[in-house]
Design goal:
alpha/beta; Rossmann fold; two-stranded parallel ribbon; 13 strands; binds nicotinamide-adenine-dinucleotide; binds 2'deoxy-thymidine-5'-diphospho-alpha-D-glucose
Length: about 350
């Protein structure tokens, strides 16, 4: 099996590359990544030593480069992780999100059609469903929850999902889509809440919490997302959407306080800053379909996953210190100063 993994130098894509090389040692995995601010070849250092792995630096929206790669490799499966992924950045520069997340997806769909891939899998997000109210704990996102997006990021991901489904209906392209809740774990870029809090708390810097910190996210350890996608590309039904989540709902304040406890740092580091515009209140996934149909089961709960993750950041300081001491400083200043 020859699998194209797009965005494999980012957080979830890199974890998926390692997961697949370990679980399917006979597969060939090719990664295409533009190496934006979020892509990091250091993350793939170990994978690059594996003869079954290859890396190509290219933009998924570059039709010529993508077609040449498909022609050369004859991929069986495409798993599209490549995206602009940060909601806050999408509020600053929506156009970049449209060009990568929508137009990039379209190029991959065209290539998959032209070169006859057996499965195109789109890695989507629970954010396409919008949000749920905080006072209705009985409500969850199912695969039939209407698309109702809040940010330019989620709107671009929803647009891509609709294109994927249209290519299935119109051209019979064999597609699947997964919509996962918030991931955390190794190689998570420090602009996102959990690695931001770990890296700043270790430096005794203030932790910026949006609004009152009462927004709820449904956290899944990244390897459980990888195992779900592995199942879907092998056993999932063509044309179907699968939600992925493990019922680990936490308020942002609960998450931050747990990290501070594990690091032995004081809660006085918490500071409240102006809220994110359009901030979604609560995400909560109903994973019944993937659990009953494909037998997926997460291996980690939040308690074990967050312990592992905090320890990973303590053991891999060089990886994230290289990031937070670089261009990231300007990003942080721009997004948070005087907020
Ligand atoms: P990330 O930002 O860490 O990584 C994105 C990767 O895509 C980077 O390596 C980047 O260089 C690459 N990339 C960006 N634009 C590209 C382009 N035009 N061509 C080629 N490569 C490009 O993102 P992530 O958190 O790993 O998310 C991966 C995917 O999973 C995204 O599609 C995201 O929408 C989805 N997702 C993320 C989460 C989460 O909690 N992080 C949850 C559900 C779904
Ligand atoms: O639900 C899946 C989505 O999860 C993915 O599709 C996105 O790619 C991914 O970035 C993530 O989106 P969120 O917006 O939920 O993640 P983020 O880490 O940016 O924020 C998590 C929560 O923490 C959210 O309620 C906003 C809040 N937050 C975030 C940052 C960066 C803060 O309070 N302070 C911060 O500095």
């Amino acid at each position: 099996m020859n699998i194209l993994v797009t965005g494999g130098a980012g957080f979830i894509g890199s974890n998926f590359v390692y997961y697949m090389l370990r679980e399917h040692p006979d597969y060939r995995i090719v990664c295409i990544d533009k190496l934006t601010y979020a892509g990091n070849l250091e993350t793939l250092e170990e994978a690059l030593k594996n003869p079954n792995f290859a890396f190509v630096k290219a933009d998924i929206a570059d039709r010529e480069a993508v077609y040449a790669l498909f022609e050369k490799e004859g991929f069986d499966v495409v798993v599209n992780f490549a995206a602009e992924s940060h909601v806050d950045r999408s509020i600053e520069t929506p156009e970049l999100f449209l060009s990568t997340n929508v137009m990039g997806t379209q190029v991959l769909l065209d290539a998959s059609r032209k070169y006859g891939v057996k499965r195109y899998h789109q890695v989507s997000t629970d954010e396409v469903y919008g949000d749920l109210p905080l006072d209705r704990k009985d409500l969850f996102f199912t695969e039939t929850t209407p698309i109702h997006t809040s940010s330019p990021y989620s709107a671009s991901k929803a647009a891509a999902d609709l294109l994927v489904l249209a290519y299935h209906r119109t051209y019979k392209l064999p597609v699947t889509i997964s919509r996962c809740s918030n991931n955390y774990g190794p190689y998570h870029f420090p602009e996102k809440l959990i690695p931001l809090v770990i890296s700043r708390a270790l430096a005794d810097e203030p932790l910026p919490i949006y609004g009152k910190g009462e927004n709820v996210r449904d956290w899944l350890f990244v390897e459980d997302h990888c195992s779900a996608i592995d199942l879907i590309i092998h056993k999932g039904r063509v044309g179907e959407v699968y939600n992925i989540g493990g019922h680990n709902e936490k308020t942002n304040l609960e998450v931050v306080k747990e990290i501070l406890k594990q690091l032995g740092k004081p809660e006085s580091l918490i500071t409240y800053v102006t809220d994110r515009p359009g901030h979604d209140m609560r995400y909560a996934i109903d994973p019944t379909k993937i659990v009953t149909e494909l037998g997926w089961k997460p291996a980690h709960d939040f308690e074990s996953g967050i312990k592992y993750t905090v320890q990973w950041y303590l053991d891999n300081r060089k990886w994230w210190e290289n990031i937070v001491n670089g261009e990231y400083k300007n990003y942080y200043e721009k997004m948070y100063s005087g907020r």
